[in-house]
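Hi R.,

Here's the chain you asked about this morning:
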Amino acid sequence: MDATSTPIASVDIGEDEAAIEGQVETQLMASGSASALPPEFEVPPALGSLPLQLDVAVPVRGFRVRDLLRLEKGAVIASEWPNDEDLPIWCGGAQLVWTEFEVVDDVLAVRVTRVL
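And the predicted structure, written out as tokens:
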């Protein structure tokens, strides 16, 4: 992540792993994106189940400690990110994909729009 980005949300894939894997598999199959991986991309089972954290960062310019201390329920924090541009997802300091926010069953989610 660059110095102007502030993480505002993260997803811990380790939490309720079976439910998340089932949802991802169902969504991939429904979209037609689920297919066998080429041999060079196959992951050993022990590595495939390791949890990792994905971070979505949105730049919020000029946000100060005093702003943080004054936050109240329902507050809206304006970002510098244009609402029509995709957001990057990071893992361990490396950008993986570009995404857009989406609401799925009253849960905020991200839809992958481009894979790097």
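The first strand starts at residue 6 and ends at 12.

Let me know if you need anything else.
M.
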